[in-house]
UniProtKB/TrEMBL annotation:
Superkingdom classification of source: Eukaryota
Keywords: Apoplast, Cell wall, Glycoprotein, Secreted, Signal
GO CC annotations on file: apoplast
Name of the gene: LOC104241487
Main localization category: secreted
Keyword Secreted listed: yes
SMART domains (alphabetical): BURP
Compartments, record wording: Secreted, Cell wall; Secreted, Extracellular space, Apoplast
Lineage: Eukaryota, Viridiplantae, Streptophyta, Embryophyta, Tracheophyta
Coiled coil: none
Domain BURP, chain residue ranges per copy: 410-624
Protein name per UniProt: Polygalacturonase-1 non-catalytic subunit beta-like
Organism: Nicotiana sylvestris (Wood tobacco)
InterPro entries on file: BURP_dom (IPR004873), PG-associated_BURP (IPR051897)
Signal peptide residues on this chain, from the entry's feature table: 1-19
Length: 625
């Protein structure tokens, strides 16, 4: 037999062996084929392979694998090919948007439109209006830039309605929007960015030096998950400008808003925050140099951060040395979980003719250099979470209390019994779909906060972009010191995850996840239940996704747990719809007293065990039975 023929036969045999039970023929030189071989080498058991994990391997073919492995060693070269690399490797990357030279008439409606750079658009337009309706709808990675938009207009209206709905990792920039002595007109953001995941919205030098222009933010980023919004030099040096924030960031989860030099040196006009951040989970709002040297007749906060869970606000040099007007806080910050507000140099130097009023104001608050005259406190509650839980009327509302603790998110171990009917939370993975990088490529890329600038260069991420913040947040969490008794590691490849898990548990391990998302957000019936390792207290390794351009998992060892598998049934037909994996933490003594589990279940640290389901694309490792 010729040598070439023999090699070809060996190649075909090897290809079949590598494919194994996957049902696909796999080229042995691809990252996935290498991973399968690595799994077989590291595992000491012959249990079925976890295809839900192995299928997260890089989709690069053999030629691409070789090309990008070489490019990864030269970051400048890889950066030049980042678009093709992201596409081939199934990564999360933002598009590079080029400037738009399109010309538009006076009145334009943008519908079903996305990912554009509107530079110098609408400058010096007299009257008329532009409408952005259902713009960037359902776009996975909407990136839009509005630079010098509507600059110097006179009586020109801009309406953003149902803008960027249902987007995932939204990045929007409004730079010098409506500036340059714009006169009159209305800028309306209505139902802007609803139901989006991890938004990064920036308003820089927005409505600066305008006269009599009204800006309205209504139902802005409602039902949003995580993310940040920043207003820098917003409404600065404006005359008679009115800004309304109504239903802003309501029902949102971990949203951060920053107002820097907002309304500075403004004359007349006023600002109203109504139902701002209500029913939100851990909102973070920072007001720095807000209303400084201003002559606005009013600053009003009504139902601000009402019924929210935890959350923190910082007011630094807020309405400092104002010339006239009033600031009212009505029904402010009545959170059911303990938050904190810091007022530093708030209203210092105000005169007897001015007022700062607090009515039904309830938070855990610090006042420093606060105005001593013209200040009224009515029904002010400076209480801890324990006091609020006893006396606050807000907490007595059970629905409000559990607003951000989904029914079924935490439960007691006794619920894991056949025929138990219980609610199941939404276990669906909300993160963008991505793949792991092969270890040989991931190991060549910078992966630390000290190298964040190199990472930004590779992935074309600016200093104030969602991509940059996303990477920094993930790396910061990876570098956080472990909790007491925790062993942790961030893994950027499946091989790294295998190595970490086997280093903690040994090589005779099984990795499990909940089979699908059926039963989510509804009632389920528990079918047959199996305790892993005989239901004994054991150790496991749990892995959770981080938001990063490629798949990165935060893995940590969890001591003193019991792991269960359970069939999940439809409560009406009793038909099996899912196979769930649940983990019960037996020792909760090191958990914080304000942990959502204790709010949902009652009790406190170390007094009860707490169980939860393993969500879609998360996983837990345990010693094999």
């Amino acid at each position: 037999m010729h040598t070439n023929t023999l090699l070809f036969c060996i190649f075909l045999l090897f290809r079949v062996i590598v494919a194994g039970n996957s049902g696909d023929s796999i080229n042995p030189f691809t990252p996935k084929a290498y991973l399968i071989r690595y799994w077989k080498k590291q595992m000491s058991n012959e249990l079925p392979k976890p295809w839900f994990l192995l299928n997260k391997a890089s989709p690069l073919n053999a030629a691409q694998f070789a090309t990008y492995s070489k490019l990864a060693g030269d970051q400048e070269s890889l950066s030049k090919e980042i678009s093709s690399f992201c596409s081939s490797a199934n990564l999360l990357c933002f598009p590079d948007i080029s400037s738009s030279l399109e010309k538009h008439g006076q009145d334009v409606q943008f519908s079903s439109y996305m990912s554009k750079n509107f530079t110098n658009y609408g400058s010096k337009l007299p009257r008329g209006f532009d409408s952005f309706k259902k713009y960037a709808e359902n776009d996975n990675l909407p990136v839009n830039s509005f630079r010098q938009y509507s600059r110097g207009g006179a009586g020109h209206d801009d309406k953003f309605s149902t803008y960027a709905p249902n987007g995932n990792v939204v990045d929007q920039s409004f730079n010098t929007y409506g500036t340059g002595l714009s006169a009159g007109g209305v800028g309306e953001f209505k139902n802007y960015a609803p139901n989006v995941n991890v938004p990064n919205l920036r308003f820089t030098t927005y409505s600066t030096e305008v006269a009599g222009r009204k800006q309205s933010f209504s139902s802005y980023t409602k039902d949003t998950n995580s993310g940040d919004q920043s207003f820098t030099s917003y409404g600065r040096n404006s005359n008679g400008a009115i800004n309304d924030f109504t239903s802003y960031a309501n029902n949102s989860n971990v949203i951060g808003s920053t107002f820097t030099n907002y309304g500075e040196s403004g004359n007349g006009g006023g600002n109203t925050f109504k139902s701002y951040g209500s029913n939100a989970n851990v909102p973070e709002n920072t007001f720095t140099n807000y209303g400084a040297d201003g002559n606005a007749p009013f600053e009003t906060f009504i139902n601000y951060r009402d019924k929210s869970n935890v959350g923190d606000d910082k007011f630094t040099s807020y309405v400092d040395d104002p010339n006239a007007g009033r600031a009212n806080f009505e029904n402010y910050g009545q959170s059911f979980g303990e938050g904190s507000d810091t007022f530093n140099k708030y209203g210092s130097g105000i005169t007897d003719a001015q007022t700062v009023g607090f009515k039904t104001y309830g938070v855990n608050t610090t006042f420093k250099e606060y105005g001593k005259t013209g200040v009224t406190f009515a029904d002010y509650k400076n209480k801890t979470i324990n006091q609020v839980s006893v006396s606050s009327s807000v907490v007595s509302d059970k629905n409000a209390k559990n607003k951000w603790i989904e029914p079924g998110k935490f439960f007691r171990e006794k619920m894991l019994k056949t025929e138990t009917i219980m609610p199941m939370p939404d276990i669906q993975d909300k993160m963008p779909k991505r793949s792991f990088l092969p270890r040989v490529i991931a190991s060549k890329l910078p992966f630390s906060t000290s190298k964040i600038r190199d990472l930004k260069t590779i992935f074309h991420a600016g200093d104030d972009t969602q991509m940059g913040k996303m990477m920094l947040d993930a790396l910061t969490e990876c570098e956080r010191s472990p909790s007491a008794g925790e062993t942790k590691r961030c893994v950027a490849s499946v091989e790294d995850m295998i190595d970490f898990s086997t280093s903690v548990l040994g090589r005779n391990v099984v990795v499990r996840t909940t089979e699908n998302t059926k039963g989510s957000k509804g009632n389920i019936m528990i079918g047959s239940v199996k305790g892993i390792n005989g239901g004994k207290v054991t150790k496991s390794v749990s892995c959770h996704q981080s938001l990063f351009p490629y798949l990165v998992y935060y893995c940590h060892s969890v001591p003193k747990v019991r792991v269960y598998e359970a069939d999940i049934l439809d409560p009406n037909s009793k038909a099996k719809i899912n196979h769930g994996v649940a983990i019960c933490h037996v020792d909760t003594s090191s958990w914080g007293a304000s942990h959502g589990a204790f709010i949902a279940l009652g009790s406190g640290p170390g007094k009860i065990e707490v169980c939860h389901w393993i969500f879609e694309n998360d996983m837990t490792w345990a010693v094999a039975d």
